[in-house]
Amino acid sequence: MKTEGQIRIPSGCAIAAVISKEGKKMSGEAITNSMRPMHDRSNGLGGGFAGYGIYPDYKEFYALHMFFDDRTTRKETETFLKERFEIVKSEIIPTRKMPAITNEPLIWRYFVAPLKSVLDRMQLDEREFVARTVMKINSEMKGAFVFSSGKNMGAFKAVGFPEDVGEFYRLEEYEGYSWTAHGRYPTNTPGWWGGAHPFTLLDYSIVHNGEISSYDANRRYIEMFGYKCTLQTDTEVITYIMDYLIRVQGLSPRDAANVIAAPFWETIDKTSDPAEKERLMYLRKVFPSLLITGPFSIVFGYKGGLMALNDRLKLRSMVVGEKDDMTYIASEEAAIRVMEPNVDKIWAPAGGEPVIINVKDGVSL
Amino acid sequence: MSVEYIFPEFEVIRKPERCIACRVCERQCSNEVHVFDPATGVMISDEAKCVDCQRCVSLCPTHALKIVKNESTFRENANWQNDTIKEVYKQANSGGVLLSSMGNPKPFPVYWDKILINASQVTNPPIDPLREPMETSVFLGKKPEKIKFDENGKIKCELTPQIELSMPVMFSAMSYGSISYNAHASLARAATELGILYNTGEGGLHEDFYCYGPNTIVQVASGRFGVHENYLNAGAAVEIKMGQGAKPGIGGHLPGTKIVGDVSRTRMIPEGSDAISPAPHHDIYSIEDLRQLVFSLKEATEYKKPVIVKVAAVHNIAAIASGIARSGADIIAIDGFRGGTGAAPTRIRDNVGIPIELALAAVDQRLREEGIRGNVSLVVGGSIRCASDVVKAIALGADACYIATAAVLALGCHLCRTCQTGKCNWGIATQRPDLVKRLNPEIGTERLVNLLTAWKHEIKELMGGMGINSIEALRGNRLMLRGIGLNSKELEILGISHAGE
């Protein structure tokens, strides 16, 4: 039987997210609990979380979260890392033994800074270097997998139901200003930890519910720019697209949303503001191969913000709720009610309309 | 009987009980097959002249006629087949190169027919084009590598010239001269009505058709027939024809019998002279020369028109396309070995070039591997026969398709493959006024519009089934394709998996 990465596996899912516009910290307990009422949207073959602002003491360093098949692989990878990075801390990620989560790989994290001499030699900026290194490890080093690589943020994922994964990783011990969560319902897979979501690159993370029909068009285009889609999952390719559009091309999250869920030509034609019309038309003409079709609801996490987005036809459920400085996003309203029973406002964003929530300017992250 | 005599290929079957000797067949046949015999009062036929164009069959008011394959045959021989023997006789008789028309008819594999398309079930929904928007518009042209911003951080919306198409299909080059005024009028008007483009071919642009300029591609070929400044600026794009799928390695052929009146004037060559284009462009002996011509044409059109470079699909097509993608061209058009022609040497048509399916797959993959797929759009032709061929071509990586044989079929062509004689009974590949007027451009336009409207519906149905609601998301989406009955090398080149995988 082919494993994840050798074959494309469609899956359905549950997603949830929360952010404080004031940058207030909250533990990972609420987001873990939000996944409980959506239990049936997952099938126990993958769950995961991403938390932002969780490593304040190491916020200047890239936090590499890694899975290893065995000790030898870990040693080899550490040698590889030491040639490229200063490692200021390395440790086993604390977990809780529990019957619901088994067969765990070795789970480590490294707080690292790229060696300046290496950057100079390769003539790369820091983020590009880290992105390329992650890609290299994941595509070339068998048995090693980087599943999180941003600063002051981290992804936590496993094979299991998401609420169990949250407990497994002891998320109640972390404090973040935003969190995203994912429960997976793959249609076939022996279950591989790396295949669970969120999928991340640098500080970008994606949780996604859907099965995109544009996958291979997107993959074959984005791979031109050095990305390697080793997992063959939608989430992976969407993460790379967002990284390319935002970090490499310099677009805003809203621009990126207008590329991947571009308005229909008809809608663009009817846009009354000429500058806006020109922008939408331009983005669609320039990036036709990054249009994503088929059902999806995603939450895209980045430093200081979240963006929720549905496909153009809204073929997947997704609701947004607000209460004071908090914004909640989930596949089902029930998940939001778990986090905040007295939510003020709750609505279902239209297809293709991004909901972008940024932490207020001036808040130190 | 002399050795030169070759038994007729077809037999004219006339049912005497139906024939009313109305002589329609006699008037309709430019090949003069049918003659009324006043002595007996019946119609008689000279089958040796018949090309099986079906004109008489279609117009016989009593359905008295049919044309069948002649059963008279040489002794069967798997190696020395009928056609081969006949061609030897013909050449022993004439000492000449054999000429043929339309695309390669030999039984080479048709890869389109060995590729199957995907559809959504359960895990994602098919989309119903009758109830949901389904987009087929495409823009052809170079995409910028890097987005630029102004001092306020606003995107600078600057793009090199693009061609907008309402669907990813265009009418491929057919020159005025090889086809008739009415055929050109039909193509130009249909392209305008459909929001797509047609292509002048290498015969220049008749002054009556300058009004269709926004829907016209003007071609510059090695003969440079009809090329002048106004011509270059008349269209929406300029195409440099380096080669043609039906005859890679040689230039266009138009027999002098077709160079009459307006054709001669439009081409800017004397009446009755054969228009034999040189095999190469004499200013392009290498890739760097191509770059110069591309930029000469851009200069002449003030950088307002995208430049297309059209090449025949030959063995090394991926490397050639890679060179073209770096030559400043905005669009590469690749013509497969089954592409049609108004006249080509038979040996070349039947033996030179490669199938468009393989060429497209190889080129798209190569340009992606080199990271320059965004530099150019890819247009493919050379036997795109129907909507599913279009869908498969897009999924393999094409931006759009060129069709010509399908278009002339819509105009009435019956693929008798004798365009080079200039006696087309359907008024398409002829310049004889009595024949040209048989093609009514209004009806021709309507039939072309019908054809592509039907294809558009079918393309939308197929896309919807795959859960794709915009053609952009289909382009290069090879996961949507599976091969059937293909070997692993063929699958590797096509970049697709086998059905069941």
**Class of secondary structure makeup of chain B:** alpha/beta
Major pleated sheet of chain B: 8 strands, parallel
Specify the CATH architecture of the largest domain in chain B: Alpha-Beta Barrel
> What share of the residues of chain B lie within helices?
25-40%
Structural class of chain A: alpha+beta
Helicity level of chain A, as a percent range? Answer: 25-40%
The N- and C-terminal alpha carbons of chain B lie at a distance of 60 Å
Notable characteristics:
heterodimer; A: 365 residues; Glutamine Phosphoribosylpyrophosphate, subunit 1, domain 1; 7-stranded antiparallel β-sheet; 11 helices; 18 strands; B: 501 residues; Alpha-Beta Plaits; TIM Barrel; 3-stranded mixed β-sheet; 21 strands; globular
What would you note in describing this structure?
The complex is a heterodimer of chains A (365) and B (501). Chain A is α+β, with helices and mostly antiparallel strands and 365 residues long. Chain A has one domain (11-252, 292-358): Aminohydrolase, N-terminal nucleophile (Ntn) domain (Glutamine Phosphoribosylpyrophosphate, subunit 1, domain 1), CATH 3.60.20. Chain A contains 11 helices and 18 strands. Chain A has helices spanning 29-34, 71-82, 116-122, 126-140, 162-168, 215-222, 234-248, 253-260, 265-270, 274-286, 333-339; strands spanning 11-20, 26-27, 47-52, 62-68, 85-92, 106-114, 144-148, 153-158, 175-176, 178-186, 199-201, 204-210, 296-302, 305-310, 319-323, 326-330, 345-347, 355-358. A 7-stranded antiparallel sheet of chain A has the order 8-3-10-1-16-15-17. In chain A, helix 6 (215-222) crosses helix 7 and helix 7 (234-248) packs across helix 8. The model of chain A has no long low-confidence stretch (mean pLDDT 93). With 501 residues, chain B is of the alpha/beta class. Chain B is built from 15 helices and 21 strands. The mean pLDDT of chain B is 95. Chain B is 29% helix and 15% strand. In chain B, strands 9-19-18-16-15-12-11-10 form an 8-stranded parallel sheet. Chain B has a 3-stranded mixed sheet with strand order 6-20-21. In chain B, strand 20, helix 15 and strand 21 form a beta-alpha-beta unit. Chain B has helices at residues 24-28, 55-59, 82-94, 181-194, 229-234, 261-267, 287-300, 317-325, 346-351, 356-369, 387-396, 405-411, 433-436, 441-465, 488-494, and strands at residues 10-14, 34-37, 42-45, 65-69, 99-100, 115-117, 138-140, 163-165, 169-171, 198-199, 216-220, 237-241, 253-254, 275-276, 307-312, 331-335, 344-345, 377-381, 400-403, 481-483, 497-498. Chain B folds into 2 domains: 10-96, Alpha-Beta Plaits, CATH 3.30.70.20; 138-144 and 167-498, TIM Barrel. The A-B interface holds A 8, 10-12, 187, 210-218, 220-221, 223-225, 249-251, 255, 262, 264-266, 278-279, 281-283, 285-289, 291-295, 312-313, 315 and B 120, 123-125, 127, 132-133, 135, 137-139, 143-144, 146-147, 149, 155, 157, 159, 162, 368, 371, 373-374, 397, 466-470, 472-480.
